Amino acid sequence: MKRPPPSLRCIVIETCVLVGLQIALTHLLARARLLEHLLAPGGGSLVALAVTVAFLLLRVGVIVLLPGWFLARIWLWATDCRGDGRRF
Amino acid sequence: MATALAREVAATVQRGVSAAEFTSDSDLFRHEWQFGTYQMAALGLLQVCQEHPELRSELLPAVERAIEKLLSVEVRSFDARSWREDPLDSLDGPNGHAAYLGYLNLVLSVHRRAVPASRFAALNDRITVALVRRIRNSPAGILETYPGEAYPVDNAAALASLLLQAGKTEAQRACAASMLERYRTKWCDPRCGLIYQSVGVRDGQPIDRARASGSALAAYFLSFGEREVSRQLFDAVRTQLAGSIFGFGFVDEYPAGSARGRGDIDSGPLIFGMSPSGTGFSIAGSRVFGDRELFVSLTRTANLIGTPVSRGDRRLFVTGGPLGNAIMLAMLTAQPTPP
User: Fold this and answer.
1) Least confident of B12-16, B195-199, B247-251, B256-260
2) How far is it, in rounded angstroms, from Cα B283 to Cα B160?
């Protein structure tokens, strides 16, 4: 079964959630110290390393990949709209 | 950005940093990082004072607080434990103490340029005399960092401190000139132009390979005292190791064609060969030598991974911690004109 294409509202909300999550995590993690774990992991560094790597992957995704992904989805949505007359 | 980061670093220095705040299982590394935080903070703040003289009255107290902490028994204990003698109480002795004295004396020499009537001037002179004597007495012309261990990058800090004081005596000038020659020839890998990370105490022969982290940091330290060898090291890093993905710059730890490894305490964990330390330290060289394109691309990466956030009139890197913020301040404010 073919999945229906996402609506413009869905595209915008998904993008805003990712950006908002990245900003919220940035301010949350500002209270933690992470570089030391990255440079010289100690016995209790596993959780900190996992959180840091996950956060950095999200941040790289949001800053480097998300703008292009968002534009591509908008373009696909716009070309799809032209075909069937949908707007939102 | 730099001013706001300087305020954050100054506040950290005034608050104080303890070795227990760092996460490494190694007691030596925890204390080295406490020392490194104050050392890089002092250099970075002095550079901001040089670039923005209007901030001297605000930032110089933090510089002098950092120096007082560097001189404290607590902070110098890591070196004293390794050598089984206090580095300042044993200045008349033969042991190198490059880990402590080299880095400390660079701060004292730069501070003295900024404040000619520095209250640390007498100590600066005593350490300089001790370093010159020890280098001249060393069989390989290199100061030991710890017993049986010698690192050209640590000696670069010591050498820069001598060069800043080199006008004083013929012995100092000759010592500095001969050591600079060893950076050009003996400690430099002729295939890539980078300096060896570690060399033998007795013969000066390479023990560890030529790498980005040591070469980029040495280029930064040497730039305080001279611009020829430091430029050669920076050029080697730039041409052999620097790259960019989507405009985000990076520096590899090892030259192309050599085994990569997983990284160590000097480089940080290598990601596809990319060196976190080498990338950060190269920001300084690109600023000192006016490579705007590299500076922008490396700073872009630092902002991506470092994740800066603002808090009032301060700015800090989320993944930085006290040491990371102090290092980034020093790198981002490295000066095109010597102090």
Assistant:
1) B256-260
2) 19
